Amino acid sequence: MTDRRFTPSAWLLPAASLLVSVLLWQALAASRLHLGVVTFANVPSPVEVLRAGWDLLQSPKLLFHLGHSLVRVFAGFAAAALLGIGLGLLVGRARWARSTLLPPLEVLRPIPAVAWIPLSVLVFPSSEVSMIFITFIGALFPILLATIHGVDSVDERLIASARSLGARRWQLFGEVIVPGAAPAIITGLAIGMGTCWFCLVTAEMISGQFGIGYYTWESYTLQNYANIVVGMLLIGLLGMGSSALIRFAGRRAMPWQRGGA
Predict the structure, then answer these.
(1) Which tens digits make up the pLDDT trace of 150-188?
(2) Could you tell me what percent of the chain has a pLDDT over 70?
(3) pLDDT digits (tens, 9 = 90+) for 42-53
(4) Is 114 inside a domain boundary?
């Protein structure tokens, strides 16, 4: 049977949606409308953004900024994945961990990443490490909560069956709990990756000197409006692509989920 995800009709509606969005953008940019508190007088057109993007592709600045942002994102994300999954498994299965670790984590969770920037600058002498810490904080809590939810959703009958067959504690984790929680963990990782990019841009705008976020902010200060949109679109594409890569890797790592309902 042919997979519907790869048929032309499956891509027709998304492509049409993107085309309508670009046409609407072009119409608003060309009209220079003033709608009360909203104005499109300074909004660059898609053609101007395309020209600015082509210039960036031919410039060595692209790899320079992109390299710094990728290192910061993936370093913070890797640390958040390790700690978030580890703590999530522990909190999800151990009552003492839920009682002692979850309350302070819940207090810290609502604090936005931008609020951590002054403290991270004071704690870490290197601005590079402080920006990695900001991406780490942004990704940690989505991964942690998704892991806890995944562990809580594992059928207790599967755990009881494994115990009755003589499974030890570590075998129970590796063969029942982790596979059962894996779909929720993958979802948390994908969300955490998107949050990483959001937090990175905030950190680079405030304390960075290189990176895609800094490039976007620098374009604003220099009034290169087309370059602002180029930076925004590049961040969106990188965030979407990296999250999709995580979901793809998750599907490959979970063969028992491929024939789902």
Answers:
(1) 998 888 787 778 777 777 777 777 778 888 888 999 999
(2) 94
(3) 889 899 999 999
(4) yes
Which pTM does this prediction carry? 0.84
Domain extent, residue 122, equals 59-257
Q: Are 97 and 73 in contact (CB under 8 A)?
A: no
The Cα–Cα gap between 95 and 163 comes to 19
Residue 154 lies in a domain: yes
Closest CA to 72 of 117, 123, 133, 114: 133
CATH code, domain carrying 134: 1.10.3720.10
Beta strands in 27-72 (DSSP E): 34-35, 38-39
Phi, psi of 213 (to 5 degrees): -65, -45
Could you read off the pLDDT of 14-63 as tens digits, one per residue?
888 889 999 998 888 888 877 778 888 888 989 999 999 999 888 888 88
Distance CA 37, CA 214 (A): 27
Q: How far from chain centre, in Å, is Cα 250?
A: 15
Q: What are the b/e assignments for 36-62, b being 16+ CB within 10 Å?
A: eeeeeeebbbbebbeebbeebeeeeeb
Structure tokens at 133: 């810490």
| Distance set, CA 172 to CA 39, 81, 83, 143, 165 (Å) | 59, 21, 20, 21, 11
Residue 41 domain flag? no
Structure tokens at 134: 């900001």
Residue type for position 259: G
> Tokens representing 260?
């789902």
